[in-house]
Amino acid sequence: MNNSTGKYLFTLIQSYRSEMRSAIDAKSLNINAMHVQCLRFIAETPSCTANSIVQGLTRDKSQISILIKDMVKKGWIEKTANIADKRSQLLVLTAAGRELIDKVRQEEAAVSKRMQQGLSEQELAVFQNVVQTMIKNLN
Amino acid sequence: MNNSTGKYLFTLIQSYRSEMRSAIDAKSLNINAMHVQCLRFIAETPSCTANSIVQGLTRDKSQISILIKDMVKKGWIEKTANIADKRSQLLVLTAAGRELIDKVRQEEAAVSKRMQQGLSEQELAVFQNVVQTMIKNLN
DNA sequence: GAAATATAGTTGACAACATCAACCAAATGG
DNA sequence: CCATTTGGTTGATGTTGTCAACTATATTTC
């Protein structure tokens, strides 16, 4: 392999984003990529704080702060007091947030299924392993 | 494989971007990701026009128009009259642009090399095939 | 126990990337 | 020759990202 790696990965991600965008728009879900990542993270993380998301998604805290504010405003998540640390709040999905992320997951599953057409279980397993190794190599 | 595909790919791309950013900053190359893609595309495309880039990189024409303006201003590319179509101009790299993209390619090669540590030729070949198939499946 | 330092989160300013609409000049089609 | 399409530019706006400065709280040090 040569240094077209980056190029193909960019193209793949761009195509994936575009597909997800279309699916999201088609279903009028009205949610952004970073909102999706945050909601998923909150759903999967007990005692989730803004800082948990900062660490988990490797993003700047100011960016996450703004995203949280957006999602609270949109009624997808709620803040509750964090007894363990008065500086922070615990974040939980509301019923609307859970419903939304479930719908998004369905669209993600559909796009992933399309992406994987014609590829064997073995090829996908190698792919997964390679991606995880590459992530590890860079961090 | 499940729908964590998107998640891992996002993480990989983010890590890659971050690495490239650090490498670019360390060498004081002062160039952005989209500039890099454009310069590479121009270098590899005979009779390159703004529209060629729009089609090749699948980006909005207004975005490409602005990028071209930036790169001309920075002295990395030049516009020459397109005799075949008075509406458009041909884009070519200047000496400075060629030098810059060469340096970027070196950094890309270094990052790719790090990414690939511990992975066999066969695994990388499967990876490449899977990525290209996925791109094709989405378009 | 108080002071110094670090941390969690917020806000503002700015940059990079992206999309859409409106426009003009040129090319193409009927 | 006129209508339509295309290539490119600009403005407005949205999304994602980074950095600095700030406040309140927690932790560390003495």
Describe the structure.
Two copies of one chain form a homodimer. Chain A has one domain: Orthogonal Bundle (Arc Repressor Mutant, subunit A). In chain A, 68% of the residues lie in helices and 7% in strands. Chain A has a two-stranded antiparallel sheet. In chain A, strand 1 and strand 2 form a beta hairpin. Chain A has 139 residues and is mainly alpha-helical. The interface between A and B is large, with 48 and 48 residues. Chain A binds a DNA duplex (30 and 30 nucleotides) through helix 3 and helix 4.
Summarize the structure.
Chain A has one domain (15-138): Arc Repressor Mutant, subunit A (Orthogonal Bundle), CATH 1.10.10.10. Chain A contains 6 helices and 2 strands, in the order ααααββαα.
The assigned CATH architecture of chain A is: Orthogonal Bundle
Most extensive interface: pair and counts? A-B, 48 and 48 residues
Average pLDDT of chain A, rounded to a whole number, is 93
Any idea what the CATH superfamily of chain A is called? Winged helix-like DNA-binding domain superfamily/Winged helix DNA-binding domain
Count helical runs of chain A.
6
Backbone structural class of chain A: mainly alpha
- Rg of chain A, Cα atoms, Å: 17 Å
Q: What are the main properties of this structure?
A:
homodimer; 139 residues; Arc Repressor Mutant, subunit A; two-stranded antiparallel sheet; 7% strand; globular; DNA-binding
List the helices and strands and how they pair.
The structure is a homodimer of 139-residue chains.
Chain A (H helix, E strand, L loop, with lengths): L4 H22 L6 H12 L5 H8 L3 H13 L3 E5 L7 E5 L1 H21 L5 H18 L1
Antiparallel strand pairs in A: 1-2
Helix pairs in contact in A: 1-5, 2-5, 3-4
Chain A binds a DNA duplex (30 and 30 nucleotides) through helix 3 and helix 4.
